[in-house]
Design brief:
Blueprint: H1 17-20, H2 27-54, H3 70-81, H4 85-94, H5 103-110
Helix pairs in contact: 2-3, 2-4
């Protein structure tokens, strides 16, 4: 999913964890699934931001040469205004867009 086009809220919202855990049957497993996805999204966002900011990096960074770059500031502000990775992951989970499996449960059912 493209995190830039997410319909996740920009602010923190309250969720009923018992209701959210109906798919897994376990609150902690639900939280683990959402947190792992949030880490993936955060890593992707960080990589994209670093890639875009690399264009502005200079080879010789001196205190005298450091100047504010309007485009660099705008890119940073854009990423700051995006929903947080946990909110995006929670929205994906609620929308049923996350695929997950519990390997320990699969091993138990195979035996």
């Amino acid at each position: 999913m493209d995190y830039k086009k997410s319909n996740a809220p920009l602010t923190t919202t309250v969720h009923d964890l018992v209701e959210m855990s109906e798919q897994t049957g376990n609150i902690y497993e639900t939280v683990a699934i959402i947190s792992k996805r949030a880490n993936q999204i955060a890593a992707e966002m960080k990589g994209d931001l670093e890639k875009k900011l690399q264009d502005f990096a200079t080879q010789n960074d001196n205190l005298e040469e450091i100047s504010e770059n309007r485009e660099q500031i705008e890119i940073s502000r854009y990423y700051e205004k995006l929903p947080k990775p946990t909110l995006i992951a929670t929205q994906e989970y609620e929308d049923g867009k996350l695929a997950f499996r519990n390997l320990s449960k699969q091993k138990d059912s195979d035996e």
